[in-house]
Amino acid sequence: MIKIVTSSSVPTGSTVALVNLCNRLNAGGYECKLFGPDHWHLDKCKSETLVEFRPEKGDVVVVHNIGLHSASDLQDVTATIERNRSNRWQDVLRRTVRGCFASAQKPDDFTLVLTCQGDGQSARQTNLSIFHKIHCLSDEQQIPHKAKLPVFVYPNLVDDLRKSGSKPAKVAGVVGTIKRENKLELSITQAFQDGMETVIIYGYLADPVYYFNDVKPVVEQHPGKVKFAGFVDDKQKLYDSASDVYCSASKPWSTVRLESALTGTRFHGPDSAGAEPMSNDRIVAAWVEALGLRKAGRP
Amino acid sequence: MKTFEGDFYKLIGLLKSREPFAFNRFSDGELFILQNKELILDAQQVKVGEKVTKGLYKQEDFKHFDPKAHSFHRDRLVDAFRFKAKNYFKGLSCRCCVGDESFRWQLEFHGGDDENFTWANLLVNGNYPRFIREMYPLFNNYKTVVVCNDKADLSMFPFLVKDFRVGYNAMVNDYGLIERMKQWIAGNRIEGHLFLFSASAFSKLAIHQLYEHCSRNTFIDIGTTLNPFMNMRLDRSYLKAFWLGTRNADIHKICIW
């Protein structure tokens, strides 16, 4: 079985990507489950909570955003994640010492794969030598010693979206997780400078203090014109509600530009001239090949 | 076993499946009214029965319950508290917040246990981050009606289709609004809508009577949870902790039954 295990399953771009991957692999006849600590993923794909996760012989384990020093850290992955998040000096010291003496031993009885979502920051906190394969979304992700690693580069899958039937006029969607790196305040300001009449904020509220201190003051400059939707599962509904989409952070691996193109929504952002899109079938085929997968029930 | 998190996700499940329900909350203020104690909340004083302390409330939170003058409204609150129906969930003040004695008083006054009892604080304290991040976005799936103070700004809500406003001491002064809302629901064949209430003790009476009138809509007493989006004050500690990052244990508090 393919087991995708992540340290966070709240609805951010990476979780959505892992859910899509899990669903596509299952649809293609490859048995796959997503394990995460939160609730959001549980009704989106074949999934379980993190405490149910155990690597077993013959599994392909795809790890996201879990700092691993050795494959044995996966035996109690909940404890590993808690230790990694802890700022107690004992835990920081233990992490540092284990990092210095980490072995390069790959597991024998299951295949271990790292998927680097986002900017690849999590890869810098893990022992890359224990992985059989490393998945990157883009050549622009910063992964240490990338050239020496067994890396395969393919973008995330994109939802099946269609051109919106009718679009509102001058309604901007500011799309992305609500956190400082995504610079929502710039997107909102830009949207109104471009003549938008309404802005709707779509995204998971990861950092409420950032929202309150940095985004809300900009919202208040445009009374009655900014709406807050939060994270909406139905992407078609999201794109149908907006004539334009704004993103201010550069993320060449983000799927928002492609989704905008699919739905006929004007995209405004630093990555407006990104790489050519790749079909979902081709992306799934790449995973199948990279991981040497066999369909469920076949030897 | 009943858990603070488990009951929260029960409501999430109902919202996702669009199964109508009512979530009514009986917090400490309602507890005092049920106990028929005089209650005054204003800028100068907080009076509960004979006990008077310094006032700290702002105008939109002012309240006066006089057991003699407002017995009719207190009786309606008792009706709301004792009402039983499928998917009519009653949030009680929990023992960890009001103490064992008051908790037991509620159960005795109710006349026994009810499978639909839950926490009055179900959407706040340790569940508040989940409420904002996981429940609020589900409101986008509904045509949503908001019942709130006349000073609230609702322009941030993309899902809003209608609002009803209340003023000072709404349980008493705006009681007639319940009948007008019933007429609006019947006259416009309102079904499958979501009604959010942020109207203090008025909410409790309205949610009971409107759910009894038409249980094909969903009614949630959201209290002060959406104040940051309504241009209302963040004077509750759980709000300050979540939105301003102030240190406060409430935001991590998992209430017990």
Oligomeric state of the chains? heterodimer
Q: At the first level of CATH, what is the class of the largest domain in chain A?
A: Alpha Beta
Distance between the termini of chain B: 10 Å
Morphology call of chain B: globular
Number of strands of chain B: 11
Unreliable spans of chain B are: none
Spatial sequence of strands, sheet with the most strands of chain A: 3-2-1-4-5-6-7
Portion in beta strands of chain A: 15-25%
Radius of gyration of chain B using CA atoms only: 17 Å
Taking all residues together, what is the mean pLDDT of chain A? 90
Report the principal-axis shape of chain A: globular
Helix content of chain A: 25-40%
Q: What is the average of the pLDDT values of chain B? A: 92
How would you summarize what this structure contains?
The complex is a heterodimer of chains A (299) and B (257). Chain A is of the alpha/beta class and 299 residues long.
Can you walk through the features of this model?
Chain A folds into two domains: 2-157 and 279-291, Glycogen Phosphorylase B (Rossmann fold, 3-Layer(aba) Sandwich), CATH 3.40.50; 171-268, 3-Layer(aba) Sandwich (Rossmann fold), CATH 3.40.50. Chain A has helices at 13-27, 77-85, 89-100, 184-193, 208-220, 235-240, 256-263, 280-291; strands spanning 2-6, 32-36, 47-49, 60-64, 111-116, 133-136, 151-153, 171-175, 198-202, 226-230, 244-246, 266-268. Chain A has 299 residues and is an alpha/beta fold. Chain A is globular and about 60 Å long. In chain A, strand 1, helix 1 and strand 2 form a beta-alpha-beta unit. In chain B, helix 8 (177-187) packs parallel to helix 9 (200-213). Chain B has one domain (4-37, 76-252). The longest helix of chain B is centred in the N-terminal third of the chain and has 14 residues, at 4-17. Chain B is an alpha/beta fold. Chain B is built from ten helices and eleven strands.
